[in-house]
Amino acid sequence: MKCSYACQSAEHLQSRRTFLGSLAAGVGAAAGLGALVRPAAAEELQKKQRQVLVVWLAGGASQLEMWDPKPGTDTGGPFRAIATSVPGTYISELMPQTARQMHRISLVRGLNTKENDHGKGHYMMHTGRPQMPGVVYPHLGSVAARFLAPENDPLPGYIHITPGGGGLSGGEAAFLGPKYGALYLGNGNAPANTVRPGSIDDLGASGREALRMHANDRFARRRRTAETEAYTASYDQAKLLMERREVFDVTKEPARDVERYGSHDFGRHCLLARRLLEAGATFVQVTHSNYDTHNENFDFHLEQVGEFDVSFAALIEDLAQRGRLEHTLVIVMSEFGRTPQINHLYGRDHWGTAWSVALAGGGIQPGIVVGKTNERGTEVVDREVGAGHLFHTYLRASGLDPLDSFEANGRAIQIADPTATAIPELLA
Amino acid sequence: VATRQGGRRRVAGGVGWVILALGATVAADEPLRSRIDRAIESKLDGPVAATATDGEFLRRVSLDLAGVVPTSAEARAFLDDPSPYKRERLIDAILDSPRYARRMQYVFDVMLMERRADANNLADRWQDYLRRSFRENKPYNQLVREILAADGLDPAARPAARFWLDREAEPYLMTRDIGRIFLGRDMQCAQCHDHPLVDDYKQAHYYGLFAFVGRTSLFADPARGNVLAEKGDGDVSFTSVFKKKVKNQTGPRILDGPPVPEPDIAKGREYAVPPADKVRPVPSFSRRAQLSPALTSGNVPEFDRNIVNRLWAMMMGRGLVHPLDFHHGDNPPSHPELLDDLARSFAESGYDVKAFLRELALTRTYQRSSEPPPGMSPSQQDPALYAVAALKPLSPEQLGWSVMQSLGVMAAYRDEAVARFDQLDPKAKAFFSLDEKRRALRDELIEDEVVVRLSPSLGPFLNQFAGAAGQPQDASDPTVHQALFLSNGEPVQSWLAPSGTNLTARLAALADPGAVAEELYLSVLSRRPTEEERAEVAQYLESRKDQRPAALKELAWSLLASSEFRFNH
């Protein structure tokens, strides 16, 4: 019987003593609640306010119509490749604006994730691990919320701007707990319950707050515990979030920027991402949907990549010019790429064998290309990497140690897949 | 008469220290509750928290065993009852009430399903099945036997099959959850090699369990929906990633227990119904069918220790083994002999959950205050010593129902349901008052109706407070969204507005600020206010006297949002 290695351990680097030691510490720290120990390295980093922006191209964007064009071949399709601000680096002509930003962006063209399923590809690209029954790992956004967000940050640590519905989900955080789950801003709308009901006037609001705090003080007089403190702190955080509700309101941005980013949802969502990052949000993901082009791949990409190009290039430029890019890691990814073979409906199908991801910003060496596919784009011929290598790279670029461990209910679990390592040439 | 290990033990009732010689005999009829207190108190040598006040005890036992705080009328009646036996009577009344069955339904649903999605449209019937099981106090081993034996074919037993079906009958997931949920051992890391950090978790243990379910898969039956199917062959072999040359084999086996005997089956005779297109294969010998009897045979001490530890944690706020699914040699129980005693007693009682919880509720250990006495050091407050009662965050269900109870939302629905019974024709009315059993049935029907009608209101609480699907639900940090929900969201804001006989309407009818304070505190916190709190209520009402209805809402909300309400203390 084939063993599907759920813990992916070639070896467990952590010593037994460390494990048992942290176990004992966790037990005392918060009985009953998830006992998690924050690595000292992460503590250090929070002072520097590292941020992460993920642009998620849902459905699987075509590397051939974006980052790794193959013009003039049977797989290349109708579009040309254009020169970019990096001599010798060519990308699809569908991205003229992004071409001018390529000195700030690096490409991984040798990605082989061996996964052609939407759900599994989604999981793998968000967690850096293959999906296995019986065990779920936290998403990159939850890891960032856990280790990069300042203590008691009023903004949720993992914000996801989607074209779809809004709300809260703890699933992404897995064993880290719902606090580190994703907050979805459906169509860019502010989170629920951030407006005080009209029936409560200013006096009533301050009155009930004072009463609540008095009641808590009476209760805590002799019972002070980490749990009641975390509970009362969540109300302080709620108050701050309500006061800062405007950070979710993209209409407060200048009209000129709205125009630059494009008068479509994705443009508005990218502008909201900029606003949130400037307000100090730790991790912002923007989803652009949908690239699952089994039919008419070229028409769809002409439209979709056209939107992407304008908004994404404006965002990169702004982050760079405002000095944010140096501490903001930017990732553009999908579940997988699309087949070099063009099917009879002029579509491209799911393809995890040889595709690309774009990176920029904090901790990433700018303007380089790592890895290479062959002339027709049908396989990786140089520096093949997988989702695990990327995940390690994201963490290293953000100043986190991928070999550190989560403490989940008394168990130590390495943050990133133990079988992979970071891609050294990408790290600044 | 049983022989028990002796040693230095503290004996109940402040008698002081009694030195029992090693091997001293103790009467076997000493109730479990005293043995528990003796075991816990023998490890204490410093200050111990006082006995919980009546209010503290009432709220605690109501939440733990009924899953909801009492109404103000119930609180008033209990606090004013002068009987020295009132605590025991309250425990028995709750255990006999329909609310106990509902509370246990929630506890076991969360424990067994961990908020997995209702992929097979069985969740409602599964909940009913669990509730009925606890209503009739079905022995725990029988409940587990039924759940593990269910394959979804028999319509009557189909709800119990949800355990496997909503795990998609995925063999690795089934293996992991048999280990975690029924044996208290998360052996996931032993899938690929002996656990690197836990000596007791062997790869052979993992694959011994895997062998029961490795041949099982989901089969889409056109008439019934998903059911379980099983192959008639396929052996389990495994290699450690560290010793790739050594190939091991195992048949079905529970940990270090004896291998399950298997008949010799001639080649070509593996199937009663051979696999074919759109046909559910039936093996001539089912390995999965061996799991239920093997696990519940009474010869698996890990099975017994796991469940008593989980029930203990439900009451005491922390397992004797902690975390609950991490039983192993390097993570020993805080009170090893007690855990063994609990496991043995529970098995000897015929796996009687209700009787077991009753004994726990009657201990001094359970009835201690959560307030440490002055001068108690942090190490003396170590939760593993049980010298002070733990603070337990309310589960999403406890929180939702308790908000509805406190604000008088449940009472309105209960009154309606009672009225409907009162309007029945005399014959039907007579039927429901014929004897104790039928009166109980009436109570149960009323309770069911209230819950069914209000269950949509529980949804937002589950959305906000439940953990992620497939993860242990006993641990999570509070979130800002929960605070926002309770501060500004629906349905809580509507419930705070005065209506009918709800809390704020009742308070509005009381002119005296002292009476307001009393009704408010009894309704929300199940106790009477202190002098300081009475004064605060009076002062607040005075300061907002031109806005009295608003002030009453603000007072009610402030207690609802307080730590005292959020925790079972």
Work out the radius of gyration of chain B.
Answer: 26 Å
The biggest beta sheet of chain A, please? 9 strands, mixed
Helix content of chain B: 40-55%
Into which percentage range does the β-strand content of chain A fall? Answer: 15-25%
What is the first-to-last residue Cα distance of chain A? Answer: 43 Å
Q: Care to count the β-strands of chain B?
A: 12
Which series of helices and strands of chain A comes N to C?
A: HHEEEHEHHEEEHHHHEHEEEEEEEHEE
Most extensive interface, residues per chain? A-B, 82 and 90 residues
Count of beta strands of chain A: 17
- Uncertain stretches of chain A: 1-46
N/C terminus separation of chain B? 38 Å
Mean pLDDT of chain B: 92
Strand numbers in spatial order across the main sheet of chain A:
6-7-5-8-1-9-12-4-13
Provide mean pLDDT of chain A, rounded. Answer: 88
CA-based shape of chain B? globular
Which regions of chain B are unreliable across 5 or more consecutive residues at pLDDT < 50? 1-25
With strands numbered from the N-terminus, the spatial order across the biggest sheet of chain B is: 1-4
**Continuous helix count of chain B:** 25
Oligomer type: heterodimer
Beta-sheet strand percentage of chain B?
Answer: 5-15%
Report the total helices of chain A: 11
Task: Explain what you see.
The complex is a heterodimer of chains A (428) and B (569). Chain A has 428 residues and is α/β, with parallel strands linked by helices. Helix content of chain A is 33%, strand content 17%. Chain A is built from eleven helices and 17 strands. Chain A has helices at residues 16-29, 40-46, 96-99, 118-127, 140-147, 202-223, 226-243, 255-261, 265-278, 297-321, 387-397; strands spanning 51-58, 81-83, 90-92, 105-111, 158-162, 167-169, 182-186, 283-289, 328-333, 337-338, 350-351, 355-361, 369-370, 372-373, 380-382, 405-408, 411-414. In chain A, the strands form five sheets. In chain A, strands 6-7-5-8-1-9-12-4-13 form a nine-stranded mixed sheet, with helices on both faces. A two-stranded antiparallel sheet of chain A has the order 2-3. In chain A, strands 10-11 form a two-stranded antiparallel ribbon. In chain A, α4 runs parallel beside α11 (387-397) and α9 runs parallel beside α10 (297-321). The model of chain A is unreliable at 1-46 (pLDDT under 50). In chain B, β9 (271-273) and β10 (282-283) form a beta hairpin. In chain B, the strands form six sheets. Chain B has a two-stranded antiparallel sheet. A two-stranded antiparallel sheet of chain B has the order 2-3. A two-stranded antiparallel sheet of chain B has the order 5-6. Chain B is mostly helical. Chain B has 25 helices and twelve strands. Chain B has helices spanning 32-41, 54-66, 72-80, 86-96, 98-113, 123-135, 140-149, 162-165, 171-183, 203-213, 288-295, 301-316, 336-348, 353-361, 396-406, 409-422, 426-432, 436-465, 480-488, 492-496, 503-508, 513-525, 531-543, 548-560, 563-566, and strands at 2-3, 7-11, 16-20, 25-26, 216-221, 225-230, 236-238, 248-250, 271-273, 282-283, 392-393, 567-568. Classes of the chains: A alpha/beta (428), B mainly alpha (569). Chains A and B meet through α1, α6 and α7 of A and α9, β7, β11, α19 and α23 of B.
